[in-house]
Amino acid sequence: MLPVMIVRHVEHEGAGYLQEVLNRFEVPVINVNIDRGDKIPVNLHDISGLILMGGPMSVNDPLEWILAEINLVRLAIDNNLPVLGHCLGGQIIAKALGVDVKLNPVVEIGWHTTRKLPGSDTDLWVSGLDDEMLLYHWHAETFELPVGAIPILASDYCKNQGFVYGNTLALQCHIEMTEEMVTTWCEINKNNLNTSKSVQSVDDMLSELPVKISGLHRVADKLYSIWIKALVKK
């Protein structure tokens, strides 16, 4: 199989559990690390799919690499190459598909109940999952739903938690998290959290963390495995 390309924007928002799933399916990886000065490629030669991770920046920031990444996503979708985006990555996909990314009604941080949106169009992605799942979130902005996209997840604090567009999966939530990643994010941001109903405290985010991560990974296993099956196999 040709490798997938993973674009990382900041060091502490890497592939996490997704890398474990890719290893399990024996999917090779090419890493493009923006935080280390790597440039966004202008073509997608010899890869089977494109993965975009999260980051604290806004897709609306006037950064050269953001525009280059949006163009790369458009190229991938135009060539029927599967794309997978997490949080900022999902927002970049939405922007590439022509819709706005703007402030969510509230900042959403921590473990919050997320609902699957069942239906004939979403069964492939959400069948077998619980109707409600405790997923991890860390965002202030969110995407609109592109024309032709199918919503698959929603939460009380953010109506668009995920959509599919052909073989592309865009997520607002973070299903890639590991225990180590949650702990690191909390440590980095512990002095910048104004807790509320939609923003949990560090103690709440770390409480019963192994159990929460186990449930998160059951959801990740489902969504990642469906996406991986769409990869170009050569």
Provide a short characterization of the protein structure.
This protein is an alpha/beta fold. The protein has a single domain, classed as 3-Layer(aba) Sandwich (Rossmann fold). The protein is built from 7 helices and 9 strands, in the order βαββαβαβαββββααα.
What key attributes describe this structure?
single chain, 234 residues, alpha/beta, Rossmann fold, nine-stranded mixed sheet, 7 helices, globular
How are the SSEs ordered, and which strands pair?
Elements: E1 4-8, H1 17-24, E2 29-33, E3 49-52, H2 64-78, E4 83-86, H3 88-96, E5 101-116, H4 123-126, E6 132-143, E7 150-155, E8 162-165, E9 168-171, H5 179-189, H6 202-206, H7 209-229
Parallel strand pairs: 1-2, 1-3, 3-4, 4-9
Antiparallel strand pairs: 5-6, 5-7, 7-8, 8-9
What can you tell me about this protein's structure?
There is one protein chain. This protein has 234 residues and is an alpha/beta fold. The chain has one domain: Rossmann fold (3-Layer(aba) Sandwich). The protein has helices spanning 17-24, 64-78, 88-96, 123-126, 179-189, 202-206, 209-229, and strands at residues 4-8, 29-33, 49-52, 83-86, 101-116, 132-143, 150-155, 162-165, 168-171. The chain has a 9-stranded mixed β-sheet. α2 (64-78) links the parallel β3 (49-52) and β4. α1 (17-24) packs across α7. The protein is globular and about 45 Å long. The mean pLDDT is 96.
